[in-house]
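Protocol check, entry for the methods section draft. Step 1: assemble the input record (protein sequence plus ligand SMILES). Step 2: submit for complex structure prediction. Step 3: store the structure tokens unaltered in the notebook. Ligand used here: zinc ion. Step 1 record:
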Amino acid sequence: MSDPQQVKSESPAAYRTAEPVLDGWFTLDREQPHLIGTRCKDCGSYYFPRLTTFCRNPACASETFEGVKLSRSGILWSYTSASYTPPPPYVANDPFRPFGIAAVELAREKMVVLGQIATGVDLAALKVGQNMELILEPLDDGKLTWKWKPSMEVAQ
Ligand SMILES: [Zn+2]
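Step 3, stored output:
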């Protein structure tokens, strides 16, 4: 099995210029990537993915939002392993390789954001409540996506 970390270090130029899997969902800062969400200008509620229609807070009638960079660290709230090939139209790797999915509660916003777990992380070693940080990794098609990686640093 090829090691994606190895591929990354062999082609840094390709990695730097890689396209995001979704436009505008995260910054392309390789060292300090942030997910991009929105914040209600009236009640301050955070949303990810970006919300631009009307605030979901039942006590708020606002329709104005501002784009914000969300916290790039948080606490592992839950996680699981996707051990079976998802059905079409999902384009699975061939052969399929299981991958982890983490639900992380963002440090400041206190909302839970799903993402794949970084390549090479041992799921058996993960513990709910531990610190996680956001990173960018290429998928098999070379496009960048966000993933969650265990962090030694205190969430902020
Ligand atoms: Zn609101």
